[in-house]
Design a protein that fits this description.
The complex is a heterodimer of chains A (254) and B (374). Chain A is an alpha/beta fold. Helices cover 37% and strands 25% of the residues of chain A. Chain A folds into two domains: 168 residues, Rossmann fold (3-Layer(aba) Sandwich); 63 residues, no CATH class. In chain A, strand 9 and strand 10 form a beta hairpin. The termini of chain A are far apart. Chain A is globular and about 60 Å long. The termini of chain B are far apart. In chain B, helix 3 links the parallel strand 3 and strand 4. In chain B, strands 1-2-3-4 form a four-stranded mixed sheet. The chains are: A alpha/beta (254), B alpha/beta (374). At the A-B interface, helix 3 and helix 4 of A face helix 1, helix 2, helix 3 and helix 4 of B.
């Protein structure tokens, strides 16, 4: 494995002292497309929120470049946040600003770039996701797939090393979803960005993931890890095997 | 630290970059790099990146931007040196992108657009008025239909709304009325004292509270409190497609959602107004008592001066205000469009529209009462 950029150590995930996932330990290599997967409501998004420092975990560490995101405060935290970008499930673009203004916001807030310079940089990044022709539009005027791409572009505004995507292909048609997968692969290859993706879209996972962990509600932990193609082909690990082969279990099949 | 040296060479200009070429780094050199090109048309431009320690999309955007500016400014040739493989890929990627903001297509000149906008807003206003009247008609229909068959009205929901919009509004209505009564009594007592007529403050407060301020203050507080809440509640339901779901089930949204709110508000507004009047008059009493008059004198002045006609006039008014507040709040909520700011917009429109309608109807009532000599 490549050198790890993120290390999660003994993470107990949950809210208000109640752990819904216990003792998670995994590493994410630099430049990897890493997928956190699992059934609905198992706590995938919660783990993601702990990793990006939005919600403090019950206990445990999230190290990015060896620095603990959980305990980082003040300037150190701001600096760490600039190393990561997050595209939320619904895009979370600011509705009152155009796509371009959405892009420019973090640039002008965290650097001394002039408006003209920030505009050029923003357009360059929108070009990567093929949205530079829509830069003057409001998020409300974009289609679902465009909004997702805009959110990814905004997450890349400050050239982060790691991009976290929460359910990027949820609610998209297969073609748009496949396009998004290609974009993610492309960005990982050309820019060397590490992706951490939370999803349960099988097609996407098989198409793009280099590495996965699968969370499971009952055992409150990682039930399988590895390359998705290996998991799909391995009947030993029953839950992951059923998950990847869309098999709900013996009692439900005829 | 990012640095840029601009050198004049025999063949033209050379830009020597060094340090980190990320968004933070290039911020300091962007303007100088762009301005440096001015007035050097025709010369060759060399972009030397050999001193660069870190290079990302931001750096690539600057390089591509400079290259394009140079070509537009008639620089014959642009050379790039010192790019490693990944930097070259980045520059290649960015150079495929058009870096100009597309202008949204809007035909016509400024004056034509202005006329168009005016026309559009007039059309919207007209549509709005029509919707309001149609909606009000529908509401009346369901109300009278409900009176014939009271089982169709959702009484439980009506009681819940009555508690929320009526009982829970009691403290704020009381506070505002008390302060209005107190301040008005105090302000009018000062000049009246000069004539030794401060006991007549009681007449003033009594009449003003019963006829005008009690209903008006209550209505304005409720417009801010209930109309916005109704609009936000119904607007959120609209955005979540809950209203469509109701219609599909065959439950008319007007009967199911709006009628309970209108009935609750129409019943609660007069009750709150009675309370507001009482508290307002007590507020005035505090001032009169502090001036050494007994409470019985104040009471006799008020009761002797204010007639039942005044009271009934005030009550009719606030009854109408109650209908207006609930109907406006619900209609604005029902008109909520899509988008993240839509609910907030609907709530604002509900408050503004209901306050305007309250003011207009208050004026109408004043004229009617004047003509009828009430």
């Amino acid at each position: 494995m490549k050198e790890p950029i993120i290390q999660v150590k003994h993470l107990y995930a949950g809210y208000d002292g109640q752990a819904i996932m216990e003792d998670l330990t995994f590493d994410i290599g630099k430049g990897e497309i890493f997928v956190i997967l699992g059934g609905s409501g198992c706590g995938k998004s919660t783990v993601l929120k702990h990793m990006i420092g939005l919600v403090p975990p019950v206990s445990g560490q999230v190290l990015i470049h060896g620095q603990n995101m959980v305990t980082a405060r003040g300037k150190e935290r701001t600096r760490m946040l600039q190393q990561i970008g997050v595209a939320f499930q619904n895009g979370a673009l600011f509705g009152s600003m155009t796509v371009l203004e959405n892009m420019m916001l973090p640039m002008t807030a965290f650097t001394d770039l002039s408006d003209d310079a920030a505009k050029t940089l923003a357009l360059a990044k929108l070009g990567l996701v093929n949205l530079n022709r829509n830069s003057h539009q409001l998020p409300g005027e974009l289609s679902g797939g465009m909004r997702k791409r805009a959110a990814i572009a905004r997450a890349m505004a400050l050239d982060p090393e790691v991009l976290f995507l929460d359910e990027p292909s949820a609610g998209l048609d297969p073609l748009t979803s496949a396009e998004l997968d290609r974009l993610i692969r492309d960005l990982a290859q050309t820019l060397g960005i590490t992706f951490v993706i939370v999803t349960h879209e099988l097609e996407s996972i098989l198409a793009i993931a280099d590495n996965t962990i699968m969370l499971e509600k009952e055992t409150k932990g990682i039930i399988a890890r590895g390359h998705p193609k290996d998991l799909k082909a391995d009947p030993e690990n029953e839950y992951a095997y059923r998950f990847f082969n869309r098999n709900p279990g013996k009692e439900m099949t005829s | 630290m990012t640095e840029l040296h601009i050198k004049q060479t025999d063949t033209g200009l050379a830009y020597l970059f060094s340090g980190r070429m990320d968004a933070g780094g290039i911020a300091g050199i962007w303007d100088r790099a762009c301005n440096g090109l001015a007035g050097h048309g025709g010369a060759a431009l060399t972009l030397d990146l050999s001193g660069v320690t870190y290079f990302d999309m931001a750096g690539a955007a600057l390089i591509v931007h400079l290259e394009r500016m140079a070509r537009d400014g008639n620089h014959d040739t642009v050379h790039m040196t010192g790019l490693d493989k990944s930097a070259a890929t980045l520059v290649e990627r960015v150079s495929q992108t058009d870096l100009a903001v597309p202008e949204p297509a809007r035909p016509g000149g400024r004056i034509r657009r202005m006329v168009e906008n005016q026309g559009r807003s007039l059309g919207e206003f007209w549509q709005d008025a029509k919707t309001f009247i149609a909606f009000f008609g529908e509401l009346c229909w369901f109300f009278f239909a409900g009176l014939l068959r009271p089982g169709q009205i959702r009484w439980k929901e009506t009681l819940r709304v009555a508690e929320q919009a009526g009982v829970n509004a009691l403290p704020i209505v009381a506070l505002i009325s008390f302060i209005v009564g107190l301040v008005m009594a105090f302000q009018s007592a000062i000049p009246m004292k000069m004539f030794g007529a401060e006991i007549y403050v009681a007449n003033l407060i009594g009449l003003a509270m019963v006829r005008e301020l009690g209903p008006l203050m209550t209505a304005i507080v409720l417009a801010g409190r209930s109309a916005s809440a109704f609009a936000a509640e119904i607007g959120t339901m609209k955005i979540n497609e809950e209203i469509d779901a109701l219609s599909i089930m065959g439950l008319e949204p007007v009967r199911f959602l709006i009628l309970p709110r209108v009935i609750a508000s129409t019943v609660m507004t007069p009750l709150l107004t009675v309370f507001a009047i009482l508290v307002g008059i007590l507020g005035g009493a505090v001032v009169i008592l502090s001036m050494g008059h007994p409470f019985s004198a104040y009471y006799n002045q008020v009761v002797g001066f204010v007639t039942w006609g005044d009271f009934v006039g005030g009550m009719i008014k606030c009854f109408v205000f109650g209908v207006l507040i609930a109907a406006t709040g619900c209609i604005r909520g029902y008109q909520t469009r899509q988008g993240p700011s839509a609910v907030g917009e609907a709530a604002t429109r509900a408050v503004v529209s209901s306050i305007i309608l309250i003011a207009v109807f208050d004026g109408i009532f004043s004229i009617i009462y004047y003509v009828l000599d009430v």
